[in-house]
């Protein structure tokens, strides 16, 4: 198979259900392979690592997107996030990123630890109640979604009664991040975006009038400061991004992690006994089955090459494949939370390195060991169902029984 055949296969339901054999084939073609007319697919760890940091390459911002995807302007799901930090390049990126980072600090995240631990305990209590009498539970719904949504909403200042609305809205919106989107899904993505935008416009207005100690209030103040370094549109886009990025991916980290613990019972035992560290387990889940499988980079000036290939219209960076590069990882297809050479690329790298990496790790490090210790007899209670997605990889449902 050549690069085009591999990427075309990855885009089929079978390919996205299990992309790993296709990634292994891609590695045989080298760190980079040409695809379609004028693009590249990068799978080598070193190449992806370097491209994420290379100032000659950037994300598909509004100006560039208009050239290769002119219809994008008709879709709010695509235009809204184009005002966010995720989809802008220098110099706007550095301005926006430093403002968000100034309120979303490492200290603020570290201070959340007791609150995250308390939420974990509360959700485990709820699971114990719902799963008593050996009733099967869906782990995705009862825990994997609820923990991160509550944590990010607590941080943002979204009232408790509104939080569970977001599961479907975020799932609908994030379809628009996939490479191929059906027209009906696009309509649903636009409708979800409009609802989220309306929600955060209203919440920002409430916090403007009556500030609290939360991220929405802090970002509103930044936007309203005399030097107004964040426009209203950017404020809204980044609030929606923080919400959606804050739980979609972490939900999938928890789901992918539990599924792997079931498939490799020695690792679950290791977590219970301390032979496997929570941080080692989380890192290996991120490497082995990353919640974000790919991103892309475009050349910002003419004449650039990638490993000797003309950069053309840019490259898909297959993070999930780079994490299984045999040139970087010993036995890359073996799930081993005790490996020491990890540093997966699941959170990206360089200027766009995930702003929530510390928070996502904190949640997973606390949640999975607590879950396995609280329910030592936890077992699968039916076949898990994967979501039919390539970019954001996770389960739709993961049935479990507590005893
Ligand atoms: C397991 C969980 C997560 C994974 C795998 C993940 C993955 C990523 C990746 C790969 C990127 C870079 C995209 C690119 O370079 O094109 C990114 C960016 C970002 N993530 Fe995460 N993320 C996770 C959790 C979170 C959380 C919890 C938050 C917020 C609370 C968050 C907020 C962001 C933001 C704001 C960006 C954009 C940063 C920028 O463009 O400068 N993420 N994430």
Give a brief outline of the structure.
With 403 residues, the protein is of the alpha+beta class.
Number of DSSP helical runs: 19
Strand order of the largest sheet: 1-2-8-5-3
Cα separation of the termini: 46 Å
| CATH topology annotation | Cytochrome p450
The biggest sheet, with number of strands, parallel, antiparallel or mixed sense and barrel status, is:
5 strands, mixed
- What is the structural class? alpha+beta
Uncertain spans: none
**Shape estimate:** globular
The CATH superfamily label reads: Cytochrome P450
Structure description:
- The protein has 403 residues and is of the alpha+beta class.
- The protein has one domain: Cytochrome p450 (Orthogonal Bundle).
- It is 54% helix and 9% strand.
- The protein contains 19 helices and twelve strands.
- It has helices spanning 3-10, 13-17, 20-28, 45-53, 62-68, 76-81, 92-103, 106-110, 113-130, 139-144, 146-156, 166-174, 183-209, 215-224, 232-263, 265-273, 278-288, 319-322, 357-374, and strands at 32-35, 39-42, 57-58, 137-138, 294-299, 305-306, 309-310, 315-318, 379-380, 385-386, 395-397, 399-401.
- A five-stranded mixed β-sheet has the order 1-2-8-5-3, sandwiched between helices.
- Helix 9 packs parallel to helix 19 and helix 11 packs antiparallel against helix 15.
- The model has no long low-confidence stretch (mean pLDDT 94).
- Bound molecules: protoporphyrin IX containing FE.
- Protoporphyrin IX containing FE (HEM) binds next to helix 15 and helix 19.
- Protoporphyrin IX containing FE is lined by residues 59, 85-86, 97, 152, 241-242, 245-246, 249-250, 253, 291-292, 295, 346-348, 352, 354-356, 359-360.
């Amino acid at each position: 198979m050549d690069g085009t055949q591999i990427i075309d296969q990855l885009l089929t339901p079978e390919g996205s259900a299990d992309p790993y054999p296709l990634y292994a084939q891609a590695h045989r073609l080298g760190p980079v392979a040409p695809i379609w007319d004028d693009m590249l697919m990068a799978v080598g760890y070193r190449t992806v690592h370097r491209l994420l940091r290379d100032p000659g390459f950037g994300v598909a911002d509004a100006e560039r997107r208009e050239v290769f995807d002119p219809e994008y302007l008709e879709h709010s799901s695509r235009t809204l996030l184009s005002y966010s930090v995720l989809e802008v390049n220098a110099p706007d990126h550095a301005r926006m990123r430093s403002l968000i980072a100034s309120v979303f600090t490492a200290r603020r995240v570290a201070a959340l630890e007791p609150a995250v631990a308390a939420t974990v305990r509360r959700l485990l209590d709820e699971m114990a109640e719902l799963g008593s009498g050996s009733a099967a539970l869906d782990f995705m719904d009862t825990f994997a979604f609820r923990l991160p949504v509550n944590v990010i909403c607590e941080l943002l200042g979204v009232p408790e009664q509104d939080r569970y609305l977001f599961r479907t809205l975020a799932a609908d919106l994030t379809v628009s991040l996939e490479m191929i989107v059906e027209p009906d899904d696009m309509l649903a993505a636009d409708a979800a975006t409009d609802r989220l935008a309306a929600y955060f416009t209203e919440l920002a207005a409430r916090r403007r009038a009556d500030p609290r100690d939360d991220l929405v209030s802090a970002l509103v103040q930044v936007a309203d400061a005399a030097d107004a370094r964040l426009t209203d549109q950017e404020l809204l886009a980044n609030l929606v991004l923080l919400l959606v990025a804050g739980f979609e991916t972490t939900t999938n980290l928890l789901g992918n992690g539990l599924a792997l613990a079931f498939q490799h019972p020695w690792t679950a035992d290791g977590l219970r006994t301390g032979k496997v560290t929570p941080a080692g387990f989380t890192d290996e889940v991120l490497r082995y089955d990353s919640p974000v499988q790919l991103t892309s980079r475009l050349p910002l000036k003419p004449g650039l090459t990638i490993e000797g290939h003309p950069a053309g219209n840019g490259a898909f960076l297959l993070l999930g494949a780079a994490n299984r590069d045999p040139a970087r990882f010993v036995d890359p297809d073996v799930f081993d939370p005790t490996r020491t050479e990890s540093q997966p690329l699941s959170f990206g790298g360089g200027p766009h390195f995930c702003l929530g990496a510390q928070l996502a790790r904190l949640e997973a490090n606390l949640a999975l060991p607590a879950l396995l210790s609280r329910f030592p007899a936890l077992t699968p209670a039916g076949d898990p169902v994967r979501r039919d997605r390539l970019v954001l990889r996770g389960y739709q449902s993961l049935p479990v029984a507590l005893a």
